[in-house]
């Protein structure tokens, strides 16, 4: 997750990106296989925290890493949202059972609307 800012003499615009891209409804960002366990790394290179949310399944937070220090989760609870602090990497273990397209995004509405969102296509 990253952010961009462009400024001119008359305008200032913010953008929030995942994998260097702003959301595009016509693009599949990730392809997953139904029933397969996956390890996702959510890396926040932005200057602010971003609560990461995934539709259609739940995940377990395995660990947080910040400044080279890895901290294991004290317990493995099922979640659909996790805060990813600035400069932090969060590793998630997940398994999507149902085929279909679903979204993942920053759960701050302004960030989501400015591009911090993607589509995962879960295939049978």
Going by helix content, strand content and strand pairing, the class is mainly beta
* Global shape: flat
The residue ranges in which pLDDT falls below 50 over 5 or more consecutive positions are none
SSE order, as H and E? EEEEEEEEEEEHE
Helicity range of the residues?
under 10%
Could you tell me the mean pLDDT? 93
How would you describe this protein?
The chain is mainly β. Strands 3-12-11-5-9 form a five-stranded mixed sheet. Strands 4, 6, 7, 8 and 10 form a five-stranded antiparallel sheet that branches. Strands 1-2 form a two-stranded antiparallel sheet. The longest helix has 5 residues.
Question: Which descriptors would you attach to this protein?
Answer:
4% helix, single chain, 124 residues, 1 helix, 5-stranded mixed β-sheet, 5-stranded antiparallel β-sheet, mainly beta
Question: What's the structural blueprint in terms of helices and strands?
Answer:
Elements: E1 2-7, E2 12-17, E3 30-33, E4 37-43, E5 50-54, E6 59-66, E7 69-72, E8 78-79, E9 81-84, E10 88-95, E11 100-106, H1 109-113, E12 117-123
Short structural summary:
Helix content is 4%, strand content 55%. It has 124 residues and is mainly β.
């Amino acid at each position: 997750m990253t952010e961009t800012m462009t400024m001119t003499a008359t305008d200032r615009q913010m953008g929030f990106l995942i994998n260097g891209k702003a959301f595009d409804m016509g693009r599949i960002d990730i392809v997953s296989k139904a029933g397969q366990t996956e390890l996702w790394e959510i890396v926040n290179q932005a200057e602010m925290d971003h609560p990461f949310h995934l539709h259609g399944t739940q995940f377990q937070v395995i660990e947080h890493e910040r400044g080279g220090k890895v901290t294991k989760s004290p317990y493995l609870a099922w979640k659909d949202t996790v805060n990813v602090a600035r400069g932090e990497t969060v590793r998630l273990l997940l398994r999507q059972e149902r085929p279909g397209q679903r979204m993942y995004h920053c759960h701050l509405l302004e960030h989501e609307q400015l591009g911090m969102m993607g589509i995962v296509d879960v295939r049978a």
